[in-house]
């Protein structure tokens, strides 16, 4: 039986690692960026949608959210 919480955690880790790779950042820097901007919880709440998409699509989703939040400031 699959554990949905474990699956969500794995998706978050993959998003952190992928974003770090794409933006030449260290994973711990991305973790702090995501935590500061509410991305960690957002990824978890959007799991049902995001787990059906590629990792790149999830990273694009995060980039879009961060861009929108930056423009709000």
Question: pLDDT below 50 for ≥5 consecutive residues: which ranges?
Answer: none
Mean pLDDT, as a whole number?
A: 91
Distance between the termini: 44 Å
Q: In DSSP terms, counting alpha (H) and pi (I) runs of 4 or more, how many helices?
A: 5
Relative helix content? over 70%
Number of domains: 1
Strand content: under 5%
Query: What is the tally of beta strands?
Result: 0
**Largest sheet: number of strands, sense, barrel closure:** none
| H-E order | HHHHH
**What structural class do the secondary elements suggest?**
mainly alpha
The whole-angstrom Rg is: 12 Å
What would you call the shape? globular
Q: What oligomeric state best describes the polypeptide chains here?
A: single chain
Task: Walk me through what this model shows.
79% of the residues lie in helices and 0% in strands. It is mostly helical. The radius of gyration is 12 Å and the shape is globular.
Please describe the topology of this protein:
Blueprint: H1 4-22, H2 27-36, H3 39-45, H4 47-50, H5 55-72
Helix pairs in contact: 1-2, 1-5
